[in-house]
Give the backbone structure.
Amino acid sequence: MKKIILLAALFTGNLVNAQQDPQFTQYFDNFLHVNPAYAGSSGMLSATAIHREQWVGFAGAPRSTTFSLHTPLNYRSVGLGLTAVNDMIGPVRQNMVYVDFSYTLKLGKSARLALGLKGGMNMLNVATQDLANVQANDPAFITNVQNQLNPNVGFGVYYHDEHFFFGLSSPRILEKTASTTTYLERRHYFGIIGGIFSVAKQWKLRPSIQVKSTMGAPLSLDFSLATIYKDKLWLGAMNRWNAAGGAFLQYQLNRQFRLGLASEFGVTQLRNYNNGTFEVLMSYDFNYKKTDVKSPRYF
């Protein structure tokens, strides 16, 4: 019964007030999902997949999978990308597919400023008939949504040089409503900042901060610090302000392939009803050149 009450409170807060985008411990490897200006910034064809199991053991817990693919064109000021997301939480299913476009301005030897546009579709399904409702005829749980298609557009800016990066974006600008006013798709705003610093011959540090804001939901702040050893082993920790703490481990197997694992444990009352959150990451850079592009990528 406690899980049912908690689940109802969770859905009521998220669906009535603001439908949040999925969040990731390894958000720093998921730039393209939230910022189209990132497309082509790696200087090569790059593919990344992340799967997240949130609040393991909790009925109806969030489960998210994201895939991104992007590359510069021969005219390197232009980048193209593709992002796909499958996101589930309780009775809510979202499938998003977006195409990303970026145009990059050269500001110096390594400094680049990119402007990006995103366009695509979100297919929404909400099936409330299987929920155990503790309040009869609650209007938040009586309407199903089937294959609701919501087209949308987004924009972003992204600056990066050899040691620093900064981005601002809104991946879905249009605010959509399904067949009732219960299920809302709110506009989200993202900001990210970070850098890479050498602290010893074989050691580097990469701090980063991500800010996410949307109407009807608390401001989300993610802090992350990665320690990089010999450009091979990445050990790090993250904190989501007043929500969760976590750790991640990534290993660069070769110039192309990186694997990552991450785990989070909440700091709210929900931690008493689940076994934590887990993520797996796979990233592949089609990098077969000995010069021109960096390996590994730090951002």
In short: Confidence is low (pLDDT under 50) at residues 1-19. The two ends are 44 Å apart (CA to CA). Residues 2-285 form a domain with the Porin fold (CATH 2.40.160.40).
